[in-house]
Amino acid sequence: MALRIWNEYLKAREPRDRESACERFIEKMNSFTALFMGNPPLDFDEDTGKPKRLNISTHIYGSVPQEDTRLDLWYPDNKRKTECVATHSSLYPLMIYYLNRLNDWGLYFRKCKICGKVFLAKSQRYELCSDKCRKKQSLQSKREFDERARENNYDLLYKNECQNWRNKINKAKKTSGFPSERLKEMLAAFESFKKGALQRKQAVKKKEASPKEFSGWLLRQSNVIVKLAEPED
């Protein structure tokens, strides 16, 4: 494409009348590059990964000139080892030809969920376009895992502390002669502890407090039940 535009530019500079040469150059290039002047030529279904059919008549007013649909194709033979496709007046037929070939080859258009780049993949399962994006995805997944691990850690500390309170309360219930008023006080303190813990857990989830602050509070509350469970002198 770049060589074609450059060649047409050189040809346009040959005549002495630069204004008319400029008009001829722009007229030729408008037809040749019209594919990129309107809506993006690459439009595909994000669910299936298949390109949508290009319709030249929606981009070119009126009937489509025959020259704009011309495409030359040479298949590999004894002399040529590779396929060659050439377009003349417009890039539309070239684009349509290769979109059809991509369907034949079983390739899918995918949009990378990390960088947003459109790329070709052998399956719709592919979501990342390169090793660079795969590394970024791995780092992102690790951060999310660490975040969940921190959340699970403070939640586990809370559950362990609840069990600690229950163990001491159950032991008090089984202890002969343990003051009933003290047991009521322990049960009331346990309800207050659970209510306060729930509020602080919500604050951590909303990022209004840190897991470290919550862990420190749990540690201080442990001292409350220890003192209540101590036998009277």
What does this structure look like?
- There is one protein chain.
- This protein has helices at 2-12, 18-32, 92-104, 131-174, 180-205, 211-229, and strands spanning 71-74, 84-87, 108-111, 118-121.
- It has 233 residues and is mainly alpha-helical.
- It has two domains: 33-128, no CATH class; 133-229, no CATH class.
- The strands form two sheets. It has a two-stranded antiparallel sheet.
- β3 (108-111) and β4 (118-121) form a beta hairpin.
- α4 packs antiparallel against α5 and α5 runs antiparallel to α6.
- The longest helix is centred in the middle third of the chain and has 44 residues, at 131-174.
- The radius of gyration is 37 Å and the shape is rod-shaped.
Helix and strand layout, with pairings?
Layout: H1 2-12, H2 18-32, E1 71-74, E2 84-87, H3 92-104, E3 108-111, E4 118-121, H4 131-174, H5 180-205, H6 211-229
Antiparallel strand pairs: 1-2, 3-4
